Amino acid sequence: MENDPEVSPGAAITSLTGECLANVFSHLTPATLASCMSVNKQWENFLREEDSIWRLQWHKIYGAGSNGAMPVGLDQQPLSSFRAACAQWHPFCKQYGNFALRSLHAWQQIHSWLELNAPQIFASLRPGATEAELDDAERTLKVRFPAALRVLYRIHDGQDLEFDRQIDTLRPSMGPSVFHGLFGGYQFYSHLVSSRMLPLNRMKRWTQHFRSRLNLPDDHPDVMFAAGFNFNKTINCITNTGDVMVSHVPGLSRVNAANGPPLPLPAFAPLAALQAQELGYPVLSPPEQPDAPLQWFEFYAQDLSSNKFSMETLYDEVPNSTGICLFPRRPPHGPSAITRGIQVSASPLFIPELSNLRDVDDGDIQYFFAYSIRFRLLSEQDQRTEAVATNTNSAPADATSIPRFVQEEEPFRSVQLLDRAWKIRNSAGAVESEVHGEAVVGQYPLLEHGGEEFTYQSCTHQREPQGSMEGEFTFIEGSIENPGARQVKARCPVFQLTMPDVVF
């Protein structure tokens, strides 16, 4: 063809088959494909009609659309084609580079988990903020947001919750939306947290409010982008460094100049990087483009999508208080042990807003932890299976008969808790304290075979970032009112009390 003077280059291009074009175009980027549409009418028509080419790009570059659903735009509205999606998302990715793709992928992980497990929280996510809205928030707060925070808000401008709308009318109530915080929560005794992602309008409002109450300058770099419903825990971005901090607002009902600013703790940092500073602790040494808000968000998305957290009742005293529970339920974070058919599981959690990492006059250094303990009595069949497995594993190698325990012991139909005993160890493994007492949080749970779990939460604190707890719970056969002859000391496995590298 090259030696034939009768065939022009243009004719050669237009003679390419659709299969050939599809193969070539599949290796190009969306920007290059857009340029190809201006080469000639054939290519333009082909790329307009063959949405599968754009769908391939959408999968490959944006990592989305694999579930067969049509893509959405930055406003979270469905788009008519994958070509339209690439056209809308390309400028966003061009402006923010890899940050945009990382944000999109992390949000996709969260979307998938929420759609399956928490549709009510998924429904609360607002459409993405525009560049103009982000610029306006910067002007109002007199700061510059790091790009790693802007890309999160470009996809979703926080949450729209009924509770926040009730605050606007000065009639807030403990309805279900209180527990729909995107960043999860927990409860022990009277301490209840469920951290929602604040939309820009509420970020501006609450950041300015607490600046005023804490006597901070109106251009203070801290901005609040997430908070519990009563602000006993806040998640802040330090805009001049890009750091992410978890904090609390001291003395909400009696704030004065003497209280000073809240003491933030790092939300994302290697433990070795923690160095005491006047107002807080550096999370990391920011590079030219600090990405701590995005990294922190990515870690949360990974933990959520791996089912480290689950949807649970956060507060038994409030109906419909289901939310994302931050007590980890999967090993190795949630160890479990079975003793004579009684399963005891533990889930520890570092509580940053109640920790004090500075040795000041009004208190010692304190690393505060909560823990969630779950009891369950296996079904009679599972008790028998567990007994055989336990005794077989512990029997001598030459044993030929069924272990005596299996022959003599009948499964429990019910058991009731009598008392508890704890050993709390420091980082060196030495016992720091022992706790003995009746019941747990004032209750004597009665467990039925194959029945529901009983869960309770409590707390402890220590002077070091590492430690551990272990213990045992005494159960009586039957019930306290109608006891049987047998008692069991059910073991609670060792669980670590360690300040994590990432705090949510």
If you had to describe this structure to a student in words, what would you say it looks like?
There is one protein chain. Helix content is 31%, strand content 24%. The protein folds into 3 domains: 25-96, no CATH class; 124-269 and 288-305, SMI1/KNR4-like; 327-390 and 406-498, ApaG domain (Immunoglobulin-like), CATH 2.60.40. It has 504 residues and is of the alpha+beta class. The protein has helices spanning 9-14, 18-25, 30-36, 41-49, 51-62, 82-96, 98-117, 119-122, 131-141, 147-155, 162-168, 200-213, 292-305, 380-394, 404-408, and strands at residues 185-188, 191-194, 196-197, 222-227, 234-238, 243-247, 265-266, 310-313, 322-325, 336-339, 342-350, 367-377, 414-426, 431-438, 446-448, 454-462, 466-478, 483-498. The chain contains 15 helices and 18 strands. It is globular, with a radius of gyration of 29 Å. It has a 5-stranded antiparallel beta sheet. Strands 13, 14, 15, 17 and 18 form a 5-stranded antiparallel beta sheet that branches. A 4-stranded antiparallel beta sheet has the order 10-11-12-16, with no helix packed on it. The longest helix has 20 residues, at 98-117. The protein starts with 8 loop residues before the first helix and ends in a 6-residue tail after the last strand.
